[in-house]
Design brief:
By secondary structure, the chain is an alpha/beta fold. The chain has one domain: 3-Layer(aba) Sandwich (Rossmann fold). Helices cover 29% and strands 30% of the residues.
């Protein structure tokens, strides 16, 4: 097992990752667990993480695909790239992970074919990112988009339908975490996230 996480199951606590106020994230623990499950990863798989941020999903995916697999993480923010690299080292998956600075979709063109792809947001570039990833994803491969904005989810669903993806699954996840206060445990709601996953024909 990797250092700092002695389990096969995903769900590394958020506070275990190296973080910075300059970069949002990591993707919250419960969202990571569902995202990894929706990707249906196997040992030896190749994964692309678009907009990797601090590298939470990158690390979790690397632990799933093992030493024979590969995770390519891309982010345009230099601080995010450095954090993702540091987290790969922290969890002992630096030989499985390749982190690169670049703006999607252009930065995706040089990457190899993949068995699964994660897209975090994407903003105004989401449609061309999905179109570019479509040609990188192997037949039967899985795509998982995490959307905070409803508009992002709408674009993702429409584009996946237009490209002929099957088994399009849409899940809205609202997580509340307990916080101890003087009188007991208060449940604190986090931002809901819509997780869209699908299979390429």
């Amino acid at each position: 097992m990797a250092k700092n996480w002695a389990y096969k199951t995903p769900g590394i606590p958020d506070e275990a990752f190296n973080q910075s106020d300059a970069v949002p994230g990591p993707t919250k623990e419960e969202i990571r667990v569902i995202t990894i499950a929706k990707a249906r990863l196997n040992e030896g798989a190749v994964v692309i993480d678009v907009g990797c941020g601090t590298g939470g999903l990158t690390v979790e995916a690397a632990l799933q695909v093992g030493a024979k697999g590969r995770v390519y993480a891309v982010d345009e923010d230099l601080v995010a790239v450095d954090l993702a690299k540091s987290n790969a080292v922290k969890f002992g998956v630096e030989n499985t992970v390749v982190v690169a600075r670049g703006k999607a979709p252009e930065a995706l063109l040089a990457l190899p074919s993949a068995d699964a792809v994660f897209i975090g947001g994407g903003g105004f570039s989401l449609r061309p990112i999905i179109q570019t990833i479509h040609y990188k994803l192997k037949a039967g491969g899985r795509i998982v988009v995490n959307a905070i904005l409803l508009e992002t989810a709408t674009v993702a669903i429409a584009e996946l339908r237009a490209l002929g993806y099957r088994d399009i699954d849409v899940v809205n996840v609202l997580v509340s975490k307990g916080r101890q206060i003087n009188s007991g445990t208060m449940m604190m709601a986090r931002n809901p996230v819509t997780i869209i996953s699908a299979t390429k024909l």
